[in-house]
Amino acid sequence: MGRIRTAGLLREGVVTPGGETTMTRQFTPDQALERYTKERRSDLSDSTLYNYRSNIGQFVEWCEYQSDIEYINDVDQFDISDFQMYKRDDDEVADTTLYNVMMALRTFVKWCESKGLLEDIAESMILPDRGRAARTETIDTETADDILEYLDTFEYATLKHVLFALMWDTGLRLGAVRSLDLQDYHSAESYIELHHRPDTPAGSRATPLKNKKKSEREVNLHEWVAELIDDYLHGNRIEQTDKAGREPLLTTKHGRPARTTLRRHIRAITRPCYYSNECPVDREIETCEANSWSTASSCPESIKPHSIRRSAITEWLNKGHSIELVSDRMDVSPDVLEKHYDQRTEEEKRELRRELFEMD
């Protein structure tokens, strides 16, 4: 099979046994989804069709931000896996919801295979566990303080130090932290700006925000976080400019860090053996499979980036800030905040009300 261009449209050229070349049409992900829903309209109920379009649409939207995916034909097994990890680690999505998304996507992939647009992907897809309604993994204030104290002592103003401090103080999503440019940070006033930047030239990475333009806002920082960022900029930040002429706030020697890189940093620094030199599950630290940066996620006590966000939101609520103010700061609706983020017990809520009402 080879690729040729005809009338400006990239198509797949398939050589038949007779030596002739047949053409397989190319569709963008959005065009493929539109064709798929039209074909299924007669055999699916309106509600099922709506759910399919909504679930598969999340993958189609994700494809728009991948520089190496122009047509649905460009998708491979790794893209499917990357999308699943993106949804699992960066979105406030229940496991059952993720399962439904991936089930719908597998049905769509099978249809693409039946049309010759994809090959041998659907059967290799590994569906996520659907047993849990919602994740409840959190990190408490004392643990966060222990991590920050360790970083402050041994890895002050490094990339991982600034990353954790920003996530704990602001409750930002991992993608939002990654999206920050140097010009988005305002040292004198101690705040950052968040901008939805989905467009990018070839070869560079887009930095969209989850709720697009609605996620754009200015977020105040505590003074200690601003001082930490200042010291990072003056000492450890590597000067980088991407192909779009943007200067990332957080950088590596390769440029703006990928989500995977930031995710691994969070997983690594939240291992108890990292910041306390102790293992609560009685593993031998030196020989533990999770004792390296690249394998840290296999530690049962390490924390996902989104759990840092969830815990930070709970901490702000515990300090007595209103749901409306926290909702605005963290870019999450009050309803979703109460359902998926507020991890306080009824006793904690009652004690907080007693304190705020000065009932002692």
Q: Can you offer a commentary on this structure?
A:
A three-stranded antiparallel beta sheet has the order 1-2-3, with no helix packed on it. A three-stranded antiparallel beta sheet has the order 4-5-6, with no helix packed on it. Mean pLDDT is 84; it is low at 1-11. It folds into two domains: 22-124, Orthogonal Bundle (DNA polymerase, domain 1); 141-305, Orthogonal Bundle (hpI Integrase, Chain A). The chain is globular, with a radius of gyration of 23 Å. Helix 5 (141-154) packs antiparallel against helix 6. By secondary structure, it is mainly α. It is built from 14 helices and six strands. The chain has helices spanning 29-40, 46-64, 77-90, 95-114, 141-154, 159-170, 174-179, 223-235, 259-269, 272-276, 305-318, 323-330, 334-341, 346-356, and strands spanning 2-6, 9-15, 21-24, 185-186, 191-194, 217-220.
Q: What are the key terms here?
A:
single chain; mainly alpha; DNA polymerase, domain 1; hpI Integrase, Chain A; 2 domains; three-stranded antiparallel sheet; 14 helices; disordered N terminus
CATH class placement of the largest domain: Mainly Alpha
If you average the pLDDT, what whole number results?
A: 84
**C-alpha geometry:** globular
CATH fold descriptor of the largest domain: hpI Integrase, Chain A
Give me the CATH architecture of the largest domain, please: Orthogonal Bundle
